[in-house]
Amino acid sequence: MLEKHIPILAAELSLNARQVAATAVLLEEGATVPFIARYRKERTGGLDEVQIASIRDRLQQMEELDKRRESILSSLAERNLLAADLKAKIEAAATLSALEDLYLPFRPKKRTRATIAKEKGLEPLAETLWAQSPQTDPETEALPFVSAEKEVPDTAAALAGARDILAERISDSAEAREALRRLYREKGILKSKLVSEKEAEAGKFKDYFDWSEPVAKCPSHRFLAIRRGETEGMLFSRIVPPEDEALAELDRLFVHGPHPAAAQVRLAAHDSYKRLLGFAMEGEARIFFKKQADEEAIRVFAENLRELLLASPLGQKTVLALDPGFRTGCKLAVLDPQGTLLMHEVVYPEKGARDRAEAAEAVKSIAARHKVEAIAIGNGTASRETEAFIRSLGLPASIAIVVVSESGASVYSASEAAREEFPNLDLTVRGAISIGRRLMDPLAELVKIDPKSIGVGQYQHDVDQPALKRSLDDTVVSCVNHVGVELNTASAHLLAYVSGLNSRSAKGIVDFRATRGPFKSREELLHVPGLGPKAYEQAAGFLRIRDGAHPLDASAVHPERYPLVDRMAADLGCSVGELLRDPARRSAIKPEKYATAEVGLPTLQDILKELAKPGRDPRKQFEAFSFSEQAMKIQDLKPGMKLPGIVTNVAAFGAFIDVGVHQDGLAHISQLSDQFVKNPADVVKVGQKVNATVLEVDLDRKRIALSLKTNPQLGPKPAPGQPRPAPGQRQTRPTPAPATDWFTAALNRKN
After folding, report:
1. Cβ–Cβ < 8 Å for 214, 188
2. Which CATH number fits domain 511-612: 1.20.1200.10, 3.40.30.10, 2.60.120.460, 1.10.150.310?
3. What is the reported pTM?
4. Mind listing the pLDDT tens digit for each residue in 223-240?
5. Could you give phi then psi for residue 213, rounded to 5 degrees?
């Protein structure tokens, strides 16, 4: 089957068939996406992770299609229904919907109006009408089928029964279904209405109480918002095309002339649409557009997650982590450069003057005793007050004070992973440890948390959960392997995301390390119980050993290429270590000299980059960030204020920004740039540091409107649905509308 799929897949993805075939073979052999992209460039022609994952996912879909095809063929053969022409059509079907359309007439059915009509012996009459002969008189043809015994009292009842048979036949027609499927997708209108007597409860769906737009143009977040409104019983929605066009399509396919028999077929076709086919195609359209909306929402989530996971790490420094609180106090945890807990304590800087003084002495003493190099403060309750307290202590200027996102920290604190790591510690202390480690290495800490709990998605609970999990897992795996993992310090949770490893082999590595001591070489991985040569091949290049037995153990050069680098060094009359230290020697290497069919120039260029900076962290350099001291709470905000902020979430309608007042503000898509913005992700990323202007503050609803424009206009914002400028034009402000209109709509879409 694979040979049959290769050319189709190559055409779909605009790739060379050889590239697709090579990738398919590697995947079948058990190679991972990161491994193929990094270490098998010659075989795939340099495909990247996205292309390789697309081949993997499409091949899986094709395999599922083939399984369904075989099941249908088997079912038809068992019932002696598999005619040669039908078999050929089934074998040629390229999509699941085309396959199911072909099978539909033969699928076992429940008792329908058509089956009842057949039981009454009306099928011959239906066949006569279906032939649509100009000489056919329906009334005359129906007379012989009138029978009190069969409950067909007159010719009208006979013709109605015959039409029921034809209506079902039309509904089962693959050609009709494909024509209407296309019409629903291209011209379907999405309409939503408020469910009767739900207005008081459905406030957050106010924009959709009487909504209508072409479904093909409906953005993902709006489609999912309406779906959620339906799920919660607040809205009712339909997807319908222009009815006259749908009926015209059926007339074109099935009605052949203006004579009486054709008129009966037309009645059957229209009945089929209104009673059977229309609802079936609407159901399919809902599934189709839901899938599209899911894919877009999942894509946005994955992009945001990638930015968050690849945030700049502080690195290996001694950190004092604080989980702020008012009544319960501020939890302190000191971590050494490897993230190991050294001590923890609770202080109460917000309880009173005496407690504040004791807290100040405790923090200064801890910072001096442990030679603290940075302080991480969680951004939850009492965050800004705690930050102000720490800054007032007069600590050395060399100690960076950083506010860190707590999103998901409480989930980690109560997780099995946290209990295994710190079984005797309180949840709040675990939370402080997590905050500190997030500052040191966001990736290593965030992999311990379910990505859905990190808070960078939209409608993540409404989308296809298996598809979401697959995408987020792919994103985490991609980020972990892109950065590389320190073999002798990584947790089992981090190791489990390394190419070729899983939770069991990762635990085996940690246990082996605990009993035998630190790994001295990558080759020692082969001695880990349960970790075989294949897993070693997949994982070794992504694992780093600082000061390992071989100088390249700290790099991304795969062990299978060590002999090649040894030969490069020997040709220059030096050791590999000297080659790493001497730029002049490295510049003398001519990669063409070492190129072979197996190791081409792409891999050789990667090796030379690693020799220049072995094990270099690809993430950006860490830069300390501070919120404005002018704004500590939402009440401090005034329109026109310019504040530093951090982007916490990017959605299709704008970006949410933390300006340090315990409530994220929203910069609507129209406020993200001086230029027209089609996709917010083009101009802002999660974790990006920005300068925002406050446009409006709604204290009652705790809502903040922000702008990233150079000179934004203050005041009301554009209402949803108002026209935006075409791409390339400067965005201008339409007629003012109440801020709550667009703001409520946008905030309701944030998850």
Report:
1. yes
2. 1.10.150.310
3. 0.85
4. 999 999 999 999 999 999
5. -165, 160
